[in-house]
Write a structure and sequence with these properties.
Elements (H helix, E strand, L loop, with lengths): L11 H7 L5 H9 L4 H4 L9 H15 L1 E5 L2 E5 L3 H14 L14 H19 L6 H9 L7 H17 L8 H12 L20 E2 L6 E3 L7 H13 L7 H15 L6 H15 L10 H7 L1 H13 L5 H31 L10 H12 L7 H8 L3 H13 L3 E5 L5 E5 L3 H9 L2
Antiparallel strand pairs: 1-2, 3-4, 5-6
Length: 432
């Protein structure tokens, strides 16, 4: 749990401290780093008690804050210099003009997209308890296998929901859309299927520490859900009172998580809606970021950002700063991934031989590097971003060249694997 802060005073003495030059640097640093009481008490300047310095900080933040009201709670936040800097960087890198000629344009766009959605679906599910490996999960998604257990079903649901929401980005947020998202997210994973796409109807749901069992969050009463969801929808759809879209997306994430309107699947639903709103507002690069993977690795900080917000009278700035940091790290990871793929693409030149098109060269590279791979046309359709008919034609061409051989999978499905004479035929085709 988060240490409870002392009650802030609003006396004339505190107002005097606010404009005292000796405390200006310490105050600026505390606000730039947005420290909570548990750290402020160790960074208090000489000449003032920690409790009084905390009151000074609280007053300075209160004077800068923007306030938002919902039936279930009132929240506030500050656009700190760090937040404004991040927003500027994301505006420069996540939106419009980069869609052509940018880091993910051209022939491999669909390949990157599918891989990123898989990573996001897996990590978001693992955060909620899905117990399976990335390798097994990716194989299930790529080969469109039927989920073997609840964990795999959660991942498939997340994957399908992200794709579904990408096609809904031009719609306004509504109660029906929210319920539909939850229905997609929780399909075949709840103890009671009737709870899929339905708000909870009592106050028995609490958020507990997974280790100690301690209750860390009691959601608002169930009878506040419908009016609060209606207010959240109005807030999200409002175009008149401008709030930066990234800040609004993060607030949407927080409000759904805080309200906890469902018996299960609240976190996955909230993170999915964050993606939806970012795409809706033109931040197309978001679709290629695996944000949940970064959150999963820093889950304690993620949970603490919620706790700080609640402990500090619903100050959302803690949650904003954490999520912007996650986005920054996810973007860096995407850049590293793209650089690696650029090197791999250069390596593809080795497989470009007379009579072989670029797609076929890519297939040859896959089987050349992973001898045990069995390829199916449906999987390659997503990787190569062409129709199944085109993929099948490419595969059959490579069979005729002696580079691949057919592998019966069942009565209807045929796979393709590296032929026994692969290396020899490759040398012959190359003419060396």
């Amino acid at each position: 749990m988060i240490e409870k802060a002392p009650k802030a005073e609003a006396s004339g003495r505190i107002a005097e401290y606010l404009v005292t030059p000796e405390y200006a640097d310490a105050l600026r640093k505390a606000n730039n780093d947005y420290l909570y009481w548990d750290k402020v008490k160790y960074h208090t300047p000489d000449g003032i008690k920690p409790e009084d310095f905390w009151s000074v900080i609280k007053l300075s933040r209160f004077l800068q804050a923007r306030f938002l009201g919902f039936p279930c709670c009132s929240v506030r936040y500050i656009e700190t210099p760090a937040i404004r800097e991040d927003l500027h960087e994301f505006d420069m890198n996540f939106g419009g003009s980069l869609s052509s000629g940018g880091p993910i344009s051209g022939k491999y766009r669909q390949y990157y997209l599918v891989s990123s959605i898989m990573e996001e679906a897996i990590a978001s599910s693992q955060m909620e308890g899905a117990n399976t490996t990335r390798k097994v999960a990716k194989e299930m998604l790529r080969k469109q296998k039927k989920p073997k257990d609840q964990s795999q079903q959660m991942i498939l649901n997340n994957y399908n929901t992200i794709i579904y929401l990408a096609n809904k980005k031009d719609e306004p947020l509504s109660t029906d859309l929210l319920l539909d998202v939850h229905r997609h997210i929780t399909e075949k994973t709840l103890d009671n299927p009737e709870n899929e796409g339905r708000f909870r109807t009592d106050d028995s749901i609490v958020v507990q520490n997974g280790v100690t069992g301690e209750i860390v969050h009691r959601p608002p009463a169930w009878n506040q859900i419908v009016p609060s969801v209606s207010a959240i929808c109005s807030f999200v759809n409002d175009e008149k009172d401008f709030i930066h879209p990234i800040i609004k997306a993060i607030i949407l994430h927080f409000m759904i998580s805080y309200l906890h309107p469902f018996v299960d699947g609240n976190g996955r639903t909230a993170r999915s809606l964050f993606y939806w709103y970012m795409l809706k507002k033109g931040y197309w690069l978001t679709e290629f970021l695996s944000i949940s993977r970064v959150i999963y690795r820093s889950k304690a900080r993620y949970e603490k950002s919620f706790l700080y917000t609640e402990a500090d009278e619903m100050d959302l700035t803690y949650f904003l700063l954490y999520n912007l940091d996650v986005m920054r790290k996810a973007f860096v990871e995407l850049q590293i991934y793209l650089e690696r793929k650029a090197v791999e693409e250069s390596a593809l030149l080795e497989y470009r031989i007379p009579g072989i098109n670029e797609r076929q060269a890519h297939i040859i590279k896959i089987v050349g590097e992973k001898s045990n791979n069995i390829l199916i046309s449906k999987e390659l359709e997503r990787v190569l971003n062409v129709s199944v008919k085109t993929v099948r034609s490419d595969l059959e061409t490579l069979v005729k060249l002696g580079l691949l051989e057919r592998v019966p999978m069942n009565k209807r499905l045929v796979g393709y694997a590296k032929s026994a004479a692969f290396e020899e035929r490759l040398r012959e085709i190359r003419g060396n």
